[in-house]
Specification:
Layout lengths: L6 E6 L2 H12 L3 E6 L4 E3 L4 E3 L2 H8 L4 E2 L7 H9 L4 E5 L6 H4 L6 E5 L11 H7 L4 E8 L9 E8 L6 H25 L24 H4 L7 H10 L6 E5 L2 E11 L10 E3 L5 E4 L4 E9 L5 E2 H6 L4
Parallel strand pairs: 1-2, 1-6, 2-5, 6-7
Antiparallel strand pairs: 3-4, 7-8, 8-9, 10-11, 11-14, 12-13, 13-14, 14-15
């Protein structure tokens, strides 16, 4: 079958998914429907907020479905009525089998890691937190267990020493979008061979990427400066690593390792009141560069110190 003849259902919600939907449209894909999250009330006025994918779909006059429940017969029947050949999922909810198995050619997922490494909800964050030097994107066929389906294509790229999860996210969404288009062209033409994940890695060496929670974000100063530095990068710009400063929560968006002296105790902080504020780790210091104190705006360290009393 020709790529442009495929009837594609696209499922996604955030900005990350928009890059893939845009790339498919630019390549001439026939997107017969877009499934995204329901509008959510937010802000002081609790105004209904549309997902990034919905906004893009509206701009491009695509049919939109926003189911509350993915197993609901009304939604499933609406999908069937679109007569899809294949489904595509990018940054969306976990799908029930009745949905991912609905299209004759199955459903393809774009995942932000080199599977089987970093299965889970936060692959970009955990790759940076763990100090990985490279990551990548994977396209695979959805199966029952999350992120375990047969691999179709992968592409690696390096993670820079100073890159945050946000930096990697912004590069990855474009690399992933390009790989997804190549994958669907390959599937349409029958040129791709599916590779079972169990053939690629020793199960004992697989790293996981669970959902980030508050405890993940709390800095443990009993760790090395390298570990703290990577945690901060891996959680920036969101949800952000934090610590306590004078009984207030302090978010740290970026910092630098400092091995100029060995601290006497972990967790203490030092400042000259003008140009630096640093916290002690087990083997060195973490110099704070971009921060946000509870109740204040985000700012650089020198601006912060002008109004700070230790």
């Amino acid at each position: 079958m020709e790529f442009k003849d495929l009837r594609i259902i696209f499922m996604g919600t955030p900005d990350f998914a928009v890059a893939s939907l845009k790339a498919l449209l630019e390549a001439g894909a026939n997107i017969v429907g877009v499934v995204t999250a329901p509008d959510k009330p937010s802000g002081r006025g609790m105004k209904l907020n549309e997902s990034a994918v919905k906004k893009f779909a509206l701009e491009n006059h695509l049919q939109i479905l926003q189911p509350l429940k993915l197993k609901h017969p009304e939604f499933v029947n609406a999908l069937r009525a679109l007569r899809p050949d294949i489904g595509v999922v990018v940054a969306f909810r976990m799908l029930p089998e009745i949905v991912w198995n609905l299209s004759p050619m199955g459903t393809i997922n774009l995942h932000g890691s080199l599977l089987p490494q970093y299965r889970g909800a936060a692959p970009i964050n955990w790759a940076v937190i763990n100090g990985e030097k490279e990551t990548g994107v994977t396209t695979f066929k959805l199966q029952q267990e999350i992120d375990t389906g047969n691999i179709l294509m992968q592409e690696k790229f390096p993670i820079g020493e100073k890159e945050t999860a946000g930096d990697v996210h912004d590069r990855m969404k474009e690399i992933g979008a390009s790989l997804l288009v190549k994958t669907i062209i390959g599937v349409a033409g029958g040129t791709l061979q599916e590779i079972p994940q169990k053939t690629l890695s020793d199960p004992g060496n697989i790293k996981h990427a669970p959902k980030i929670n508050t405890e993940t974000c709390r800095i443990n100063w009993e760790k090395s400066a390298e570990e703290v530095y990577n945690l901060i990068r891996g959680l920036s710009p969101f949800p952000t690593a934090f610590t306590q400063l004078n009984s207030k929560s302090l978010k740290i968006f970026f910092g630098e390792k400092d091995y100029s002296s060995k601290p006497s105790a972990s967790g203490v902080h030092e400042t000259n009141g003008k140009s630096y504020l640093r916290f002690a780790c087990t083997d060195g210091w973490l110099q704070l560069k971009e921060i946000q104190l509870e109740g204040k705006k985000k700012m650089g360290i020198e601006e912060f110190l002008r109004g700070f009393r230790s």
